[in-house]
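Contributing new records

If you add data, match the layout below exactly. Sequence lines come first and carry their own label; structure lines follow with theirs. Keep one chain per record. Anything else will be rejected by the validation script.
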Amino acid sequence: MKYAKTIAELKSSGYKVVPVKDEIRNNLIHKLQQKEELFTGIIGYEKTVIPSIVNAILAKHDILLLGLRGQAKSRLVRALPSLLDEFVPVIKGCEINDNPFQPVCKHCRDIVQQNGDNVEIEWMGRDLRFSEKLATPDVTIADLIGDIDPIKAATQRLHYAHEEAIHYGIIPRTNRGIFAINELPDLQPRIQVGLFNIMEEKDIQIRGFNIRIPLDLLIVFTANPEDYTNRGNLITPLKDRIDSQIITHYPKSLEDAVAITKQEAWIHRNGRDIKMPLYFNEIIEQIGFEARMSEFVDQKSGVSARLTISAIENFISNAERRAILLKESTIVPRFCDLPSTLPAITGKVELVFEGEQEGSVKIGKALIGKAVRFIFEKYFPNPLQRKQKTNKQTGGLEEEKHVYNPILSWFGLGNKIEIADDMPFDNYRNELGKVKGLREVTVKYFPHVKDDPFELATAMEFVLDALHQYSKIAKDDVDSITVYKDLIGSIFQRQEETFEEEP
C-alpha cells in the first residue's frame, strides 16, 4: 500500500479521519463479524468481562476496570491497541499527533495556514498510539497534562499565554490514541480533579491560561476496590465521569486457572524432559482457590494469579535442581517438592490477625494440605468414607473393606519409608515399592501410569501424601527427608519421648 505524504495526496486518496472511539468501534465490529479472537491470552473472561468491554466500546465509553490484584487488568488494557487501525496519518513533527484535516495545536494550524495542502504528513503505527501511566503519589498535573516551559518561552520570545510555550504532558501526547492510568486510587485527589475536563469536555487547560485543545482519546483506568486500598481513594466526581465500570474476577474454574498458569509460567527448562502429571498443576492451582476461601487470608487484599505462577516455577525448579545434581536427563517432580512452593505462597497472601498469630508458613502448609485432599478426591476414594455392602448370607449390611487397608496395615506393623529430596529416581521408586498394596491401589485408579515408571512413582507418593493429609498415616519432614510411618505408633513414640524429657 502506498501511503500519502502530503495533505493533498491524503485528500485525493479519499481517506477519512474518524474519532478514535469510532475507529476502535468499527474495528471491533469487523472482528465480531469475522468471529476473530478479540483479546489473545485472556482466559476465563469469555462470558463475563469481555462482553462488558465489548458493550462499552460499542457505546464509545471510557472504561474503569475494577478488581483485585492479579486479575489481568493491565493485560486487558494492553490488548486494546489491537483494535486501532494499523496506521493513521498525522501532521509530520506534531507533538500531539494532529489530524491533518483538523489540526488543534497552534503550531500545526499555523503551518497549514501557511502551506495549505502541501504540509507533510507521516503515518503513525498503533503501538505508538498507546500510553500507560502508573499512578503514584508523586505524579503531577504537569506530568499528565503539561506545563509552561519557561526555557522554550524565553528562547522563542513567547508570552507565557502562548500555546507554543507549552510542554505537553503524556495525555496530550497520546492524542488520537488510547491512554491508560493504572491503580487510579493512588493518584492524589487534587490530580484526579485535574482529569475532569479531559473526561467531560475532552480538552486541556494549562496554568489557568485560556488555552483549549480538544483531545481525541479513549481513556481506560484500572483500580482496586476502594475498600481495599489504604493508599488512596477514587474520588466520586471522577468515578461519575467514567462511563463504564467493569468488574474483573479470579478464574472461576480449575481448568481456566491451570490454563492461565501454563500460559504465564516458565515451565520448559533447557531442553530437559519434564514428567509432571496434571494433578500437580491442579494441586498448585487449588492452593490459590483455598487461599481465596481461607478465613486466615485477607480477602479484601485478594490472592493474585501470580501466586500459582511463582509456585509452579519454584516447584519445577526444585525438581530441576535435583536433576542437575544427580545428572538425570528427566525432571521428575515429587510430592516432597511441594514445600518449595512456600516462598511463593507466604510472599503473596495478606493474613488477617488470626493468620498472623498462626504464622505464614503454617498457613501455607495448611493450604497445601487442603489442596492435596481436594484434588485427591477427584481421582481416588475418600479415605474417611466407608462403603457398605449387603451380606449375601445374612442379608444385612456390613462395612466393605477399605481399599487402603493393605497400605495402612503395612504401616501399622511398624514399617516406614524415607524419601530424601536428593534421592536418585531408582532409589525413590524402590523405596515407595516397599509399601504393600500401594502399587495396586495406584494402578487401580490411575491405570494409565502402569507402564510409565516416572508417573507411577509420583502417583504412589500422591496416595501416601493424601493418606497423611487425611490423618491415616504420619509424615515427618526433617530437613530434606520425608518419613512416612504409622500414625498411632508415631503418637505413642512422641509421648514416650515427652516422658523421657521430663525430670
